[in-house]
Automatic annotation (TrEMBL), chains A, B, C, D:
GO cellular component term of the entry, any: cytoplasm
Functional pathway: Amino-acid biosynthesis; L-arginine biosynthesis; N(2)-acetyl-L-ornithine from L-glutamate: step 3/4
Catalytic reaction list: N-acetyl-L-glutamate 5-semialdehyde + phosphate + NADP(+) = N-acetyl-L-glutamyl 5-phosphate + NADPH + H(+)
Protein name per its UniProtKB record: N-acetyl-gamma-glutamyl-phosphate reductase
Catalytic machinery residues: 178
EC number: 1.2.1.38
This protein's record includes keyword NADP: yes
Domain named Semialdehyde dehydrogenase NAD-binding: residues: 32-170
Species this chain originates from: Candidatus Omnitrophus magneticus
The organism's place on the tree of life at top rank: Bacteria
Family statement: Belongs to the NAGSA dehydrogenase family. Type 1 subfamily.
InterPro entries xrefs: AGPR (IPR050085), AGPR_AS (IPR023013), AGPR_dimerisation_dom (IPR058924), AGPR_type-1 (IPR000706), NAD(P)-bd_dom_sf (IPR036291), Semialdehyde_DH_NAD-bd (IPR000534)
UniProt KW keywords: Amino-acid biosynthesis, Arginine biosynthesis, Cytoplasm, NADP, Oxidoreductase
PANTHER family: N-ACETYL-GAMMA-GLUTAMYL-PHOSPHATE REDUCTASE, CHLOROPLASTIC-RELATED, N-ACETYL-GAMMA-GLUTAMYL-PHOSPHATE REDUCTASE, CHLOROPLASTIC-RELATED-RELATED
Amino acid sequence: MCLLFRLYFLARRMHLSWVKSALVLWRNIMIKVGIAGITGYTGEELIRCLYQHPKVKISSLYARIEKPIHFSSIAPRFNKKIDLMCEPLNAEHMGDNCDIVFLALPHTVSMEFVPFLLKKGKRVIDLSADYRIPKDSYELWYKHEHTDSENLTQAVYGLPEINREKIKGAKLLSNPGCYPTSIILGLAPISKLISQCLIEPIIDSKSGTSGAGKKAEASFLFTEVDENLRCYKANEHQHIPEIEHFLSYEAGANIKVHFSPHLLPVRRGIMSTIYLNHESFSSIENIQKMYNDFYKNEPFVRVRPLGKFPEILDVAETNYCDIGIKFARGMLIIVSVIDNLLKGASGQAVQNMNIMCGFDEKEGLF
Amino acid sequence: MCLLFRLYFLARRMHLSWVKSALVLWRNIMIKVGIAGITGYTGEELIRCLYQHPKVKISSLYARIEKPIHFSSIAPRFNKKIDLMCEPLNAEHMGDNCDIVFLALPHTVSMEFVPFLLKKGKRVIDLSADYRIPKDSYELWYKHEHTDSENLTQAVYGLPEINREKIKGAKLLSNPGCYPTSIILGLAPISKLISQCLIEPIIDSKSGTSGAGKKAEASFLFTEVDENLRCYKANEHQHIPEIEHFLSYEAGANIKVHFSPHLLPVRRGIMSTIYLNHESFSSIENIQKMYNDFYKNEPFVRVRPLGKFPEILDVAETNYCDIGIKFARGMLIIVSVIDNLLKGASGQAVQNMNIMCGFDEKEGLF
Amino acid sequence: MCLLFRLYFLARRMHLSWVKSALVLWRNIMIKVGIAGITGYTGEELIRCLYQHPKVKISSLYARIEKPIHFSSIAPRFNKKIDLMCEPLNAEHMGDNCDIVFLALPHTVSMEFVPFLLKKGKRVIDLSADYRIPKDSYELWYKHEHTDSENLTQAVYGLPEINREKIKGAKLLSNPGCYPTSIILGLAPISKLISQCLIEPIIDSKSGTSGAGKKAEASFLFTEVDENLRCYKANEHQHIPEIEHFLSYEAGANIKVHFSPHLLPVRRGIMSTIYLNHESFSSIENIQKMYNDFYKNEPFVRVRPLGKFPEILDVAETNYCDIGIKFARGMLIIVSVIDNLLKGASGQAVQNMNIMCGFDEKEGLF
Amino acid sequence: MCLLFRLYFLARRMHLSWVKSALVLWRNIMIKVGIAGITGYTGEELIRCLYQHPKVKISSLYARIEKPIHFSSIAPRFNKKIDLMCEPLNAEHMGDNCDIVFLALPHTVSMEFVPFLLKKGKRVIDLSADYRIPKDSYELWYKHEHTDSENLTQAVYGLPEINREKIKGAKLLSNPGCYPTSIILGLAPISKLISQCLIEPIIDSKSGTSGAGKKAEASFLFTEVDENLRCYKANEHQHIPEIEHFLSYEAGANIKVHFSPHLLPVRRGIMSTIYLNHESFSSIENIQKMYNDFYKNEPFVRVRPLGKFPEILDVAETNYCDIGIKFARGMLIIVSVIDNLLKGASGQAVQNMNIMCGFDEKEGLF
């Protein structure tokens, strides 16, 4: 099977569509995926998506545990669906059992596994921040040495709307951060305009708590978060370099942003409210058209009619990014919403896998 | 008693402190207050504050009802505390039974009662928007004719931190809006700087649902608000003229702001995150000092140490406005939080009453 | 197509498996379903399930509106998925355009449409209470005359775990209530024991707010529900006769229950905590075994190990009913949880459709 | 001052009302209270109540810290109110600086401090479980040796509604648990009836999360609690012996209860829904009258009219216990609600202090 899988990738890269077709038709081909980090929220969400995926077989699960343990005792909500052991994190086991490995691990842990897996010829989809931004930027913002610069330069940033072609051939896919996904998608259609006019967008983001992961910290207790709102890391969040790097990449020129996140009392969802203030904007209808055109063929981005904003519940439990724009009193306001666990993490990872494997991009997603 | 009350006010205005003292000492003096609109959230909160106030007797309650009804059947949570009938809205009844009337009524309803009450010599504290901004501004933003321009020009805007002296002699006090309170307090110490540098602050506010009142609308149902976030009336909310009017008043020059509110899934509380971007800022320590100095003697404003932001739960169920400022990557960020029902409405109304009556400003408040 | 569909049903009823197989194989067969009442929460959830269903084509949508309106303007969260007009409720239009009609309408409205649709030979899946319980019981508890007693006696109660065989041949399927689903499934395995021992189970249920529908009532506002808990209709809720009727049906003898629901500050989910107190219980291991055996082959019921209780989040966004049982201090305690919009309404309706049409029972469901 | 305080207590015990009066009139008498455990929710709530109390001076604060630290840096929400250092837990410091010490410490920690403080002649109000129930019961249910059996037998259980006379003279007051408060108050008026009829009440309680304290455990994270409901320790919670002990004490005969708590997604509040099933109940009007009579003169218990149930929001942020009773289909149902941090902990502790000191029982409470 593993051989078949490699043949398939080879055929795709060489545009041997007849081989590809033959392989796809051969009924037995199911990609074997492994998921590392299944005790976290993104790991669990990956299982939900991949379990429904008709071309995928979840072959193994990994977590930071000492001994193998049956998955049902970790996550009873998957009983009668997933009947697998969860294994301790182990690169060799991953290499022996998976065609593609999803790493839903904390930052700095992913880079311990990537080199080995790539050497084994596996495809890796990394949901951590380890392979998103250049080494110097990473070390500055994440305050940790990067020990795998070789693969870092090879990694493909997995935001399909601006990088689909490169994703098709990716061996190491670096899945975008949640805030950056909502913000880059909210600004990509006008990135050139922003850089030309030297505008510095002001971004006020609000995120649900699942973005903080499942670690036991008093500040994320229900009693501390419920009925509350908290502004944190204002204009110094580690997602800033990622946002600026890929917006600049899309614009072909440097863009600087101001980004301040807030912790919302909701479980999932991100809203980014983006403010752009400049006298030289072309007509607002023009800008609306730029958004409509940019996302016309995108399966997972929806642009609202001019002046209408989406809400978090419009995209919760889906892989969509919904965007609305409005012009009022000289200010261009853009609202972009995603489900932080889906389009902001696991859903996008599956979308990337679909692109990498030549599957329908919407498979396994809602 | 009513006579005494007038004598008291007269003495205060004429600075006859000995008469005032004599009157205050006379044990029996308790101001009789009436509250109109007690079925709404602000009306109920007024009762909570005034019930605890040692100088006040709640003498009558009013609501938009047909026939008198016992208050306990409307609000069982005041049983064993308040044993009063609730009367239909009736200006004459108010005039006969109260020294001060709090109007917690919807916009456009207040102005039906104010002229009569003032003519009767009563003090009025109006929580609606009817007497906050000039007639033309009101009619433009509230889309309703203003039928009491005479008293509108006499009304005193009740934000103690910028208007305390005028409040002392107010007959008609116009209590500020919830968003404007959080925003004006967040910017007042640097209002001159803002106008001089021609900065247009960008304000991203987030409010709990009690600000929307108790009207039965599908968009405020629990199922529609919970786990959601909604940006509404972006840069076209009717509080904009109030914010600009009084910030400009404080600065002595015109100030323009950009203001976009969001509906949070919390019951009470407002956070305003304010962004100011300008190269000519003096040192951030200087700005912090301006805040510390401006609010040094204020009983209900607290400034955090530089770089620390307050959260909504820091002020929930209190009359405080907490403010934090931070400078990062060229951007000045100010976070201002209040409880929308207290400092943003009923608490501030009681603070204003305390100032008008010469009581300790903190009486009845926490 | 319609003809094909009838042939298919005929074949199934006559056990002509070869005809059935031939028809199924014929690639074009896709059942055309219509959904009436799509502005409510159950209507929307039906669309979510059926949109993902490989054997179904959503052919038409209906709501209580005056004129046709594009569905995207009602529910932007289905943009790029559903591109349909929503029509006013109209029995003839339903009859002309659908093979199966789902009625997600309020009680008493369904029975206006059912007679016509059945006469037209359509299958109807009714999510209201109109066809669940006998006429006299209905009129007593729902305080409304039942005008379609003829079809009422023909309707099949759609709780697959106790009625699967009858569901296969149903023309009019009456989908169970949300509370009854959680409770009947929680007690069915020991229903005989309950009736023999004359136990009257005490049931304390807690439901999310989506169960109350989208009607604008002040008591369901966020500000009234959040941070609150409310016990309502204690031991006099209209679901009592449904629970008793079908538990008795399953036991073959009369069972009386005590049922008190509470309104939880969550959007979706029901937990029923059930107390049974009787000295004559056989061993608890025996009872656990009765549950395990009863649900062994059920795709959507999961029994926890003895002493372990499920939580609402274990089943939210799924069609599962999870059940845990425990024995402590002489009391048998059963906890049963469902998502009220899925297993408690739309998910179960789709499960029933799958059974009626001979599809895989899990199709379209998670 | 300390001497004065002892004189005052002595005078009260000896019914020397003239001494008492003289002392009270002497303006300077203010009781010095210390609060140990101020980083927890109950500690903070004690500060809120005592800060407003006209007869009390908060003289010192203690927490499990290494070095003294200014309280404002722990709890900025008390800035401009409390200007005190917080000291490490230290019995001698408490003894030197306080007339009364409130211990808001975890179970097993309180008993390290009580013996010393009592020896020093201080009054102690202990909010932990350490002095509530007999030694054998404590050691069985709390699984920890009790090292202070001497004082345990002297401790007075501080539920004023059943124990007011003893509380007046208490030196060591043991403040009731939150669940027991809601349940004992819900059943006390009919405790004799319950014991006579051998009824075993079934109690389904639901509590907000602040009851679990501020410890960082993953199961209390917002993402794990929000939109969820969890039944835990069903019929084996450590509050069972406390409930049975004091209900039996009130009835004068043994009472057994069945008690199962649930964790609600709200910050504060407890609802206990209590089921009693017995044919021999006297008329329901009789029972309602028993409740009305029992609580007629109680300042903090309110009985609703027959058939009306209170909600959590009716008592949130107050010291009330609201109770409603209803009879339906042969079942007596009682709903009792409290704020777990006030009547369920800190508010009741202050109520007890008021009784112990001869103050108005409502002082400092709302």
